[in-house]
Design a protein that fits this description.
The protein is of the alpha/beta class and 137 residues long. The protein is 24% helix and 42% strand. It contains 3 helices and 7 strands, in the order βαββαβαβββ. It has a 7-stranded mixed beta barrel with strand order 1-3-2-4-5-6-7. Strand 4, helix 3 and strand 5 form a beta-alpha-beta unit. The longest helix has 14 residues. It is globular. The two termini are 20 Å apart. The relative contact order is 0.23.
Length: 137
C-alpha cells in the first residue's frame, strides 16, 4: 500500500506536532482509495485530551465532526497520525495494542531528530508493515 500526501499537508502535520510539544499530537486523514494507493485529500488536526508526551487519544466530539465532514466531502477515512516527541517513527507496543482497524494507515511523526521523520504503517493482528509514503508537491 502507498499513501500519497501533499507537501502542504505534511507541513501542517509537522506544525501541529511541534505546536503540541512536549505532548503527542494527533489527527485523522481522509481521502480516496484507488487499488493500492491511498490519496490523502484532507488532514484533520485534532487535540490530544491526554496531554501526554507518551500517549494520545482523540476527542470523540472532534472525531465525530471530522467523520461528518469526510462524508459531506465524499471522502473515505484512511487512518490517523500522531507524533512521537522524543522517540523514533515506529509503532510503540501501545500503538500496536490499540490499533483496531487493519485497513487504516497509521502515520507516525518522530520529532526526536532535527529533521522530522514521518512514516506510514499498517498494523493488523499485532503485525506491523511499513507502507510506502509519497510526499508530493
Amino acid at each position: 500500500m502507498t499513501v500519497r500526501l501533499k507537501k502542504s499537508d505534511y507541513d501542517a502535520i509537522v506544525g501541529h506536532a511541534k505546536a503540541g510539544l512536549p505532548n503527542e499530537a494527533c489527527g485523522l486523514i481522509a481521502g480516496i482509495v484507488q487499488g493500492d494507493l491511498k490519496m490523502v485529500e484532507k488532514v484533520y488536526l485534532l487535540s490530544n485530551p491526554d496531554q501526554s508526551p507518551e500517549h494520545f487519544s482523540i476527542d470523540p466530539r472532534e472525531q465525530l465532526a471530522a467523520v461528518k465532514d469526510m462524508r459531506a466531502r465524499g471522502l473515505s477515512p484512511l487512518g490517523n497520525f500522531h507524533s512521537h516527541p522524543s522517540t523514533p517513527s515506529r509503532p510503540s507496543q501501545e500503538d500496536i495494542r490499540l490499533a483496531y482497524d487493519p485497513k487504516a494507515s497509521y502515520l507516525i511523526l518522530s520529532l526526536a531528530e532535527e529533521t522530522p521523520v514521518l512514516r506510514a504503517f499498517e498494523i493488523a493482528g499485532g503485525a506491523v508493515t511499513l507502507q510506502t509514503l509519497e510526499i508530493t508537491f
